[in-house]
Request: fold
Amino acid sequence: MNDEALRATAAALMAGDKGLLAMDESNPTCNKRFAALGIPQTEVSRRAWRELIVTAPGLADSISGAILYDETIHQQLQGGRTFGHALGDIGIIAGIKVDAGAKALAGHAGELVTEGLDGLRERLEGYAAMGARFAKWRAVITIGVDLPSPACIAVNAHALARYAALCQEAGLVPIVEPEVLMEGAHTLQRCAEVTGQVLHEVLAQLYVQRVVLEGMLLKPNMVLPGLDCAHQDAVDEVADATVTCLLRAVPAAVPGIAFLSGGQSAELASARLNAMHRRFKDRLPWPLTFSFSRAIQQPALDIWRGDASNVQQAQRALLHRAACNRAARRGDYIAAMDIAT
Reply:
């Protein structure tokens, strides 16, 4: 493990007011989105969609790193370059999703644990040889009646820490993603309580596993009311709850925090990130940025619909959303940016 190289990659991913693009949807998830729009659910369609993203002119103006799926990192663009090399050619760092998905947690109905540690050391070595410089592992935590259980938080935190240690051993920066899900009727306050518990346990396990904090990135959820909660808090209230929770849980040694969008609308995700910078910019010990998937890609996917004649228009929509989030990282995003499009 080369600590300096890990620190340099983490710093590069957080540099220049840019953010990360999560284009690592599993094949079933990608196919589900395609099916809703009448796009063929094939390897050819998935490759074409991801080529549309990677070849969008000027993508690197707002995006510092892109998280790929296993299928994608093995694919080639029409010109014969791999996706990893194509990203590197335009100055975007290639990363890779390495978990095997969330599965039912034995003995705990309604809860999940992320699997994929078996054989991970060898897989990481292979991905590094293909040009990946960072990786991602997602754990999911559900809020409900008597949920989450201490066991669910503990096993997911332990897995995240073991994954992170293996990544650093292989020379890859681990993105540690503990996601408290939006589904449910819980309040903003309840989400803040659970998110705090999860972050404290994750950071404790990272310490136990001797993960170098300066050589990793954190990818948490924003603190949000559940989708079915009767009261949906204002943008500023979400910003205050999220940053307060992070300040209480995340050491300043962590070089950056990149939020997942978690099912938020594109505009709300941008507005909430913007409010955090507008209200807390001088108090943040770490950079806050975005690592969005649907909140950047969905408008473009809605336009593309598998039709080659829509590629340029879809790319413009993709670049617009990426630019909006870069503006949000500076605290310069305004809703008029979207009204005008």
